Amino acid sequence: MSTLALELAGGRLDRHTKVIAGGRLDRHTKVTLSSAAPAASSAPSSASARGLDWFTFFLADIQTGFGPFVAIYLTAHAWPQFDIGLVLTAGGLVALACQMPGGALVDAVRSARLVAALAVGAICVSALALAIWPTFPVVMATRVLHAGASCVLGPVIAAISLGLVGHAALGGRLGRNARFASIGNGVAAAAMGACGYLVSNQAVFFLTAILAVPAVLALMRIRMGEVGQTKELEVGTAVTSIRSVVTDRRLLAFAGCILLFQLANAAMLPLMGGILTMRSSEWASTLIGACIVVPQLVVALFAPWVGRVADSWGRRPLLVVCFGALALRGILFAVVTDPYLIVAIQALDGVSAAVLGVVLPLVVADITRGTGRFNLGLGIVGSAVGIGAAFSTTLGGYAMDHFGRTLAFSSLATIAACGLALLWLLPETRRVVGALASAAQTAPSLKSERKRSRLSANWDARADSARSISNPTIATTQLLISSDRSSPELTAGADHLPWLPLSKAARNDSLSSVRAAIRSIVREN
Questions:
Q1: What pLDDT is recorded for position 458?
Q2: Domain 240-430 classified CATH 1.20.1250.20?
Q3: DSSP 495
Q4: How far is CA 432 from CA 120, 162, 314, 428, in A?
C-alpha cells in the first residue's frame, strides 16, 4: 500500500491509493509537499485586475497618438516627405533592434511596474517635445525615445498578466487585455481626430502627454506583491541560458510563422487604402476609418472568448483560424471592388488580430515556462513581427506597381498560406494541467471570477509541486491523485470539461488509459 500524504496550501489532504508493481504491493511511501505558495491558492485582488485593465486601455490611448498623427503633424509644418519618412523609418529600426534587449531587460529587473512607469514617462516627454519643438533633431530624438520605451511596455504587460493570474488563467487575462487595448485604440482615435479638427494638430500630442497621468495611476493600483508571489510559481526560479532559448526549435518555428503572417498582413490595408483613394476620393478617409474601426470592434467582442477557449481547443487550431482568415482576406481583396464589401471583409482582420493578440503571448509562455526567459521569448517573436512588417509594404508596393492589384493581393494570400503550412511544424504547446484549469474556469457551476482564478492557481500549484519531487513516478502519481475529485468545485463542473471527450464512457476510458500508463511507469521503476 502506498500512501501519498499531500500537504497543499490551505490545509492537509490525505489520499490513499494502491499501486500495483509487478503483481506485488510496493512499500509505504510518504510524500509531503509544503512548497506550494499560499499566494497560489488565492485569486488576484480586483484592484490589481482593474488596474491592469485600465493601464492597458490608457497605454493604447497613448500609443495611438504616435500613429498616423505624426505624419499629419509634420506635414502641416511643411516637412518634406523624405524627412518624414526618414524619422519614421528610424523609429521603426530602433523598435526592431530593441525588441530582444527590451524583453531581456524585463526578465532581469525586479520591478516590472517601475520599468513600465519609466517607459510611460519617456513617451510623455517625447509627446511634449514633439509638440513644442518640431525640428528635425528633436523629432528624431523623440522617435528614438518612443520606440525604445515601447519595446519594454509589451513584455511588461505580458509579465504582469502572467504574474497576476498564473499560466493556467493567462488566456482569459490576455483576452481582457486585448479587449481593453482595442477599445482604447478606438476611443483615442476618435478623440484625437476630433481634437486635431477642432483645436489643432499640435493639441493631439499635448493630449497624448496628459493621458500618461491616468496610465501611471492605473499602474499604481496593481499590487506587485501579488505579481511577485505568483511569478515564482509560474515562471520558475531557474534561469535558462539565453542561447538555449534562442535556439529552441519550437520558438524559432513560431517566430517564422509570425514573420510570414506580418509579411502578408502589414501591406494589405495600405494597398487597399490607395485603391480606395483613387476610386472614391471623396469618401476615402471615411472608408479607411471604417476599415480601421471594424477590426477593433471584432477584437473587443471576441478576444475574451479566444482567451477562454485557448486551453480547451489548443493553440494550433486557433492559429489555423488566424492564418486562414488572413489568406481569405487577401483573396477577397484581389477580386472584390465594392467599397462597402471591403469594409465588411476587414472583419477578417479583426478575427486574426483577436487570435494573435491572445495566442502569441500564450505560445511563448508555454515554450519558455520554467526558464525565466519569458520576455526574451516575446522579444524574439517581436523581432519577427518587425521584420515581417518592414518588408511587407515594400514587397506589396512593388507587386502592385509592376503586376497589378490581383497578383499583388494573391501573392500576399500565398504568403499567408505558406505561414499556415509552416504552422504544421509547430507542435501543440498547450499543457494538460492548463487545459484542466481552463475547463474548471468555463464550468457553468463556477459563477464567480475569483473562484475560477483561485481554482486555476490551485491546478498550477499542484503541477509545480509535483515537478519539484525528484522521483518522477511519485510526481506523476501525486499529480493525478491530487486532481482526482480533490475539489468539490471541479466535481460540480466535471461533466462540462471541454478538454475531455464528449462521451462519458470515452472520458472514463481516457482516464483509465492514463492510470494504466502510470502503472507501467511504476513497474519500470
A1: 56
A2: yes
A3: G
A4: 37, 18, 10, 11
Distances from the Cα of 387 to the Cα of 134, 267, 270, 316, 417, angstroms: 29, 13, 17, 23, 18
Q: In the prediction, which pLDDT does 461 show?
A: 55
Single-letter amino acid code for the residue at 413: A
Which one of 3.40.1180.10, 1.20.1250.20, 1.10.260.40, 3.90.1750.10 gives the CATH number of domain 35-235? 1.20.1250.20
- Name the residue type at position 269: L
Helix, strand, coil shares, percent, the chain, to 5: 75, 5, 20
- In this prediction, the residues of the chain whose per-residue pLDDT falls under 50 are 1-42, 229-238, 433-449, 466-502
Q: Cα–Cα distance between 137 and 287 in angstroms, integer? A: 35
CA distances from 72 to 99, 127, 206, 329 (A): 27, 14, 15, 29
Question: CA 508 → CA 73, 146, 485, 515, distances in Å?
Answer: 65, 55, 14, 11
Helix axes 268-279, 284-313, angle to 10 degrees: 150
The backbone torsions φ and ψ at residue 4, rounded to the nearest 5 degrees and listed phi first, read -105, 110
Grid cell 486601455 — which residue? 57
Cβ neighbours of residue 495 closer than 8 Å, sequence gap 6 or more: 504
Regarding pTM above 0.70, the answer is: no
For residues 37 and 10, give the distance between their C-alpha atoms in angstroms, rounded to a whole number: 10
Q: Report pLDDT for 407.
A: 92
User: Could you tell me which residues are beta bridge partners of residue 5?
Assistant: 14
User: In the prediction, which pLDDT does 39 show?
Assistant: 38
* Cα–Cα separations (whole angstroms), residue 258 to 93, 106, 170, 359, 419: 18, 22, 20, 11, 8
